[in-house]
């Protein structure tokens, strides 16, 4: 039996469940159950907050997980990635008030930047030679500039309409992300074989979709 952690309720949930079903795996799911067992594959599915998934897989509480690369890399476990899944594509971008002048990332030197991704942003800014004051907040990041909490933000963007609606404009792409399958790095031989079967099925599903 192999244990897979997926997001309980959020942007990754539906596509994760659909992918597992399209792999030919049947299971019951209901919104109040936190785990379920497949009926035709030795798989147990755990439903968790996405932020908890990388740590659980790193520690071996779960063998496998489906999570966004943004959350995986921010958690500090990029090496757990085994397969790109092609959904939940988005980017982590820097944005400033539309009224502000901007010519390059050097303009952010000494500025206050609000983000939920201090690790990824910190590494990006260090690579650009820019020193800024990062303020870590866990949600509603887009409101920070208009209420005077920060000069800029770094947050997830997909359509861009949230930025627009908060009077912001995107000035730099810091990181590109999609959903990935992750795996514990010390799986038993049996679990490794199950992982390979799952990866093979996921690759077939993706090929058939194209
Ligand atoms: O409760 P839990 O902790 O499990 O979920 P969560 O609220 O932390 O995450 P959730 O469900 O919002 O997102 C899960 C993952 O989906 C993220 O980690 C990303 O990998 C991916 N993803 C893809 C996105 C988006 N697209 C996205 N648009 N995550 C968040 N957003 C936000 C964005 O920050 C903005 O505030 O959606 C808003 C709308 O975006 P626009 O640009 O389309 O307006
Ligand atoms: Zn989360």
TrEMBL record:
Catalyzes the condensation of ATP and 5-phosphoribose 1-diphosphate to form N'-(5'-phosphoribosyl)-ATP (PR-ATP). Has a crucial role in the pathway because the rate of histidine biosynthesis seems to be controlled primarily by regulation of HisG enzymatic activity. Keywords: Amino-acid biosynthesis, ATP-binding, Cytoplasm, Glycosyltransferase, Histidine biosynthesis, Magnesium, Metal-binding, Nucleotide-binding, Transferase. Its cofactor is Mg(2+). Feedback inhibited by histidine. The keyword Cytoplasm applies. Residues 49-203 form the ATP phosphoribosyltransferase catalytic domain. GO terms for cellular component: cytoplasm. Belongs to the ATP phosphoribosyltransferase family. Long subfamily. This is ATP phosphoribosyltransferase. It is found in: Cytoplasm. Pathway: Amino-acid biosynthesis; L-histidine biosynthesis; L-histidine from 5-phospho-alpha-D-ribose 1-diphosphate: step 1/9. One of its GO terms (biological process) is L-histidine biosynthetic process. Its EC number is 2.4.2.17. The chain holds residues 1 to 210 of 283 of the full protein. It comes from the Bacteria. The keyword Cytoplasm applies. It catalyses: 1-(5-phospho-beta-D-ribosyl)-ATP + diphosphate = 5-phospho-alpha-D-ribose 1-diphosphate + ATP. GO terms for molecular function: ATP binding; ATP phosphoribosyltransferase activity; magnesium ion binding. The gene is hisG.
